[in-house]
Design goal:
Blueprint lengths: L1 E6 L6 H7 L9 E5 L7 H4 L4 E5 L15 H12 L3 E5 L9 H7 L1 E5 L4 E7 L12 E5 L3 E4 L5 E8 L2 E11 L2 E6 L5 H5 L1 H15 L4 E4 L5 H12 L3 E6 L8 H4 L6 E5 L5 H14 L5 E4 L18 H22 L10 E5 L15 H21 L5 E6 L19 H12 L11 E3 L4 E2 L2
Parallel strand pairs: 1-2, 1-3, 3-4, 4-11, 12-13, 12-15, 13-14, 15-16, 16-17, 17-18
Antiparallel strand pairs: 5-8, 6-7, 6-9, 9-10, 10-11, 18-19
InterPro entries: Class_I_gatase-like, NAD(P)-bd_dom_sf, SDR_enzymes, SDR_fam, ThuA-like
Protein name: SDR family NAD(P)-dependent oxidoreductase
Organism: Solibaculum intestinale
Length: about 450
């Protein structure tokens, strides 16, 4: 587990946080410290399971300039929304006046009196307070404003000045946020009950977000989606069509316990049922289904004068159109008990009749138009049951659909996966209308 720690500001030395986190260091856990807050990007954050924020909006004790830019806040919001964890400790809640940060955290620090004895008291025993006994320490008594009614308070802080929330959690998209208000002084960090609270909070923020099945996960976009989801704390069932050319073994050791690989041919009802049984045994409930497997006939780029290849066209139909429809039939029942129930289908602008410009690629284009219709029908079947859908054109990717990597394409699969998840993992203002959404933000006509 890699944890990015943002610390050090005008009133809070980064060294206090560094020393306070020592009890959490163990095999498999590493802290990367950033004391100026600079350089937060989507790509950079993707390599961390958790961001621990113990820093107000100053670059350091010596530099009072703000560190939080609109771009870094964009990256942080996207990171959490896609499944990343955010743990704000003490000065990490000091963002009064920044509406976006307050919305992300669920509340902000307002003021505090002179340091005094404060007592942290759990509201009950749950995953945040398990093993945490009440403790008293001299510290700052933070007065907070909780602006999100959905936050859950796990512990309070009492002093001669009254009572305030001390620990709370909330969900942001598919990610988790936890805020802890005490810990101004090194002595607070060194209390065993506080160390246990921190450990529980880290575990809460980094536990698997949910379970997703990705088809065509062996390489290309499917592999990049699988890797990105694993790094965002998802459990992934990866459907592998051909193990001889699969990149999945590269991830198996790093994500042991959160990655399960199963043979899957979406054109075979027997293969689909076997993969369904495997998923039910290993993961149980399925939260997210990504239909990514696809083919592009070797002769699709030929002109009609050179002749058409009906066998290839039928293969396109089997994989690109019928496969996703059968996939939903097989796996939708595993999603019944999920609180998410989202089905994402990788289609193509080639399936848009209204935007068609091609004079070839008959089989591929027709199969993508057909899958669009298939998803629309499934949408009518399952939307009333709470399922949500994403129909998506990923762009021209450097994938292996023709056997070798297509270096003429525009986007690497890793970038394609990042853009896709930015659409797959966020709620839409209107979930009751199905559209063909493009990686560049456009909506394609049917």
């Amino acid at each position: 587990m890699r944890i990015l720690v943002l610390c050090d500001d005008t009133y809070h030395a980064g060294e206090t946080v560094r020393e306070g986190l020592l009890p959490l260091e163990r095999d498999g856990v590493s802290f990367v410290f950033c004391e100026d807050g600079q350089g937060l990007t989507n790509q950079g954050l993707a390599s961390y399971e958790l961001v621990l924020l113990s820093k107000s909006d100053q670059r350091s004790m010596e530099d009072e300039r703000p560190w939080l830019t609109e771009e870094s806040l964009d990256a942080l919001e996207t990171y959490v929304g896609e499944g990343g964890g955010l743990l704000a400790v003490h000065s990490g809640t000091c963002y009064d006046g920044n509406e976006r940060m307050e919305r992300l955290l669920g509340g902000v620090f307002l003021t505090h009196p002179k340091q005094c004895p404060v007592t942290l008291t759990p509201c009950g025993e749950d995953e945040l307070t398990a093993g945490v006994s009440p403790f008293t320490v001299t510290d700052e008594f933070y007065t907070m404003r909780l602006s999100d009614p959905q936050v859950k308070i796990h512990a309070t802080l009492e002093s001669e000045h009254g009572s305030q929330p001390a620990v709370w959690t909330k969900r942001v998209g598919f990610g988790r946020v936890c805020c802890i208000t005490p810990a101004h002084n090194p002595k607070s960090w060194n209390i065993s009950a506080f160390a246990r609270l921190l450990e529980n909070a880290v575990r809460f923020c980094t536990k698997p977000v949910g379970t997703v099945l990705v088809t065509g996960a062996g390489r290309g976009l499917g592999f990049s989606l699988t890797e990105a989801l694993l790094r965002h704390n998802w459990q992934v069932v990866a459907g592998e069509y051909d193990p001889k050319v699969s990149f999945l073994p590269k991830l198996s050791e790093e994500f042991k316990g959160r990655l399960w690989v199963t043979p899957l041919d979406v054109t075979s009802p027997q293969s689909l049922q076997a993969a369904k049984a495997f998923t039910a045994r290993t993961a149980g409930t399925l939260d997210l289904l990504i239909s990514n497997a696809g083919v592009y006939g070797r002769h699709e780029d030929d002109s009609y004068e050179e002749g058409l290849y009906p066998d290839e066209m039928l293969r396109d139909y089997q994989v690109n159109a019928i496969g996703p429809v059968l996939l939903m039939e097989a796996f939708a029942p595993l999603m019944e008990k999920s609180g998410c129930r989202r089905i994402c289908v990788v289609s193509s602008e080639a399936g848009s009749i209204g935007a068609c410009w091609r004079q070839n690629a008959f089989g591929y284009s027709m199969s993508k138009a057909a899958v669009n219709m298939g998803v629309q029908i499934w949408f009518h079947c399952l939307r009333p049951k709470g399922y949500t859908f994403r129909l998506y054109h990923p762009g021209y990717l450097r994938t292996y659909m023709l056997g070798e990597k297509n270096l003429k394409a525009d986007l690497e699969p890793e970038e394609g996966a990042r853009l896709a998840l930015g659409y797959f993992l966020f709620d839409l203002p209107d979930e009751d209308t199905l559209t063909l959404h493009s990686f560049d933000g456009r909506e394609y006509p049917w």
